[in-house]
Hints:
Elements: H1 2-29, H2 31-36, H3 41-46, E1 55-57, E2 60-67, E3 74-78, H4 81-88, E4 91-92, E5 97-98, H5 100-104, H6 106-109, H7 117-126, E6 134-137, H8 141-150, E7 156-161, E8 168-174, H9 179-183, H10 187-199, H11 222-232, E9 240-242, E10 246-248, E11 255-257, E12 269-271, H12 272-278, H13 281-291, H14 293-303, H15 326-332, H16 343-354, E13 358-360, E14 365-369, E15 375-378, E16 383-386, H17 390-406, E17 420-428, E18 431-441, E19 448-454, H18 466-482
Parallel strand pairs: 1-6
Antiparallel strand pairs: 1-2, 2-3, 4-5, 6-14, 7-8, 7-19, 9-12, 10-11, 13-16, 14-15, 17-18, 18-19
Amino acid sequence: MTKELRRLSIVMLFMFISLFAATSWIQVVEADTLAQDPNNRRTLLDSYEIQRGSIIVDDVAIASSNPADDRYQFQRVYTDAAMWEPVTGYFNPALQSATGIERAMNADLSGTGSSAFFSEIERILSGQPQTGFSVELSLDTAAQTAAYQALQGLNGAVVAIEPKTGRILAMASTPGFDTNLLATHDADAANATYDQLVAEANKPLSNRAIAGDLNPPGSTFKLIVAAAAYESGDWTPDSTLPNPARFQLPGSNNTVANAWGGTCGDGDTVTISEAIRLSCNIPMAELAVQLGDDKIREMAEKFGFNKSFSTPLESTPSSYPQGLDDAQTALSGFGQGQVTATPLQIAMLSAGIANDGVVMNPRLVDTVIGNDLSVVRAFDDTEFGRALDATVADQVTASMVASVSNGAAQGARIDGVDVAGKTGTTENGNKPYTLWFTGFAPANDPEVAVAVLVEDGGGQGQSGSGDTIAAPIAKKVIEAVLGR
């Protein structure tokens, strides 16, 4: 009997220790992660009657809380709401709803995360009301303003990244909406506004910078195909490819052509670097077939394709599917077919090339700031991984510089600055083109990498191009960052 009691005691002791360890792990180690989880409804509900911290850009609050004469005590107010909306999102306690940074950083903004533990003890002892922490973003006001203004009247998006750090300097998406209308505590009015936005054909609720209906990246994807070729060691920028005016897709009766219908230059062959400079489709389709879809996918994934990123806003993964046949692989050579991408991903592509082949994880938040203005938490720069050897990155950069200086991307030229860039003009059957540009500057010491997406042909149907519509937008954003 004594032996059985001893065994039972040991079992109960083990169970107690296990329970204690699990509870400690959840309450201590996992506490901040669980508190920050946007799906944690308890944290969200707890935050509704707290004066939230501000969302700050360049030392200016773009979202703040004002006293309100209702049960929720504080009304969230947004400055230049439509411009910042793709990032801030909105917060509405009446609807028990939050989006964007308001949702992703809710635990900090509401002061309910583990980082607020000691501040909460101090608050209780002093009898002060609970307040949240402020969140300082990485965004650059000049870059965001330039992007937003340049996109007016268009369905599109811009993402600008600091190549060496991954800090996002601009994230604009149009058309946008006034987040104050969805933050109102008048639930009926907020719901009516939301229903109206849902019904609009141009989808203002979609953040085209990181999500929504993704588009093929067009000729911007040629950078990945060229990089995969150079990294393989079997090709160099001077390697030549056949130069016909039309190319029959393997295993298909369909043919493809260059955008202008002719050959890529005058010769029977053309170099890869020249195909990039002039943005020729046929040589890149031929190169893609020779490389094979596995090598192209491997390179695309080194830049972030087929992966979601948390900035902390969650991005839809850009896609390079598995198992493409030769015809689809050929189409992927110039960014058509089943390949899709977000502007965030295409900005990461340029940023990785600009950063000597090293891709940084993109991020929107710099610091969390306490009520005494001390830094409660700082966010570090982190590497996603090395996509390219530095020599290969230089080779791709040279073709991009040539494309802007005297090639297919001259719409991004800036006097006195070497800009590296690549356009994209995606065909959508009989529908208007989708227009792209991506690049970075200065080419020899990059401070900013940009991606621009313009849907619906920029209002010009099939007459517009990445060079005439998307590239000038990127130029304005680059100039804003460089202070020109």
